[in-house]
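dumping this here before i forget
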Amino acid sequence: MSAPPPRHRQLQTASLVLVTVNAAVFVFLAVAIVPYWQSLSGDETQTWFADHFGRFSWMMVPVHLLAIATTVTAFIVER
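structure:
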């Protein structure tokens, strides 16, 4: 049986995973959502954002905050 990895290695891995999830979300937006937005008129885009903004903030804010928190924690622990 091998010993568990050191705590700082686990924090680095968590940070990497969460930053990767952030990047994946932005790639998804660029590939799937932006072309749809570009096909809408200005008024339709504003209506779409008004209808769906809560879904974006519900998904994005926790992922961003977790990524920031784990990255900062990993940096502090590593120092």
